[in-house]
Amino acid sequence: MTVGPHFKEANNFLWPFQLKAPLGGLKKKRNHYVEGGDAGNRENFINELVRRMN
């Protein structure tokens, strides 16, 4: 998906929503979330990750 000629406007709108690296970092980035790692689909646990990144 691209925003074409309106990239600057779209980028400026999204700027306040940028997230930082999660507090405490990520553990086991190479393993999938369901295998005890940090990569992959978190489904219902995404809110916890966003709180750590805010």
From TrEMBL:
<dbReference type="GO" id="GO:0000463">
    <property type="term" value="P:maturation of LSU-rRNA from tricistronic rRNA transcript (SSU-rRNA, 5.8S rRNA, LSU-rRNA)"/>
</dbReference>
<dbReference type="GO" id="GO:0003735">
    <property type="term" value="F:structural constituent of ribosome"/>
</dbReference>
<dbReference type="GO" id="GO:0003723">
    <property type="term" value="F:RNA binding"/>
</dbReference>
<dbReference type="InterPro" id="IPR036919">
    <property type="entry name" value="Ribo_uL30_ferredoxin-like_sf"/>
</dbReference>
<dbReference type="GO" id="GO:0022625">
    <property type="term" value="C:cytosolic large ribosomal subunit"/>
</dbReference>
<protein>
    <recommendedName>
        <fullName>Ribosomal protein L30 ferredoxin-like fold domain-containing protein</fullName>
    </recommendedName>
</protein>
<dbReference type="InterPro" id="IPR039699">
    <property type="entry name" value="Ribosomal_uL30"/>
</dbReference>
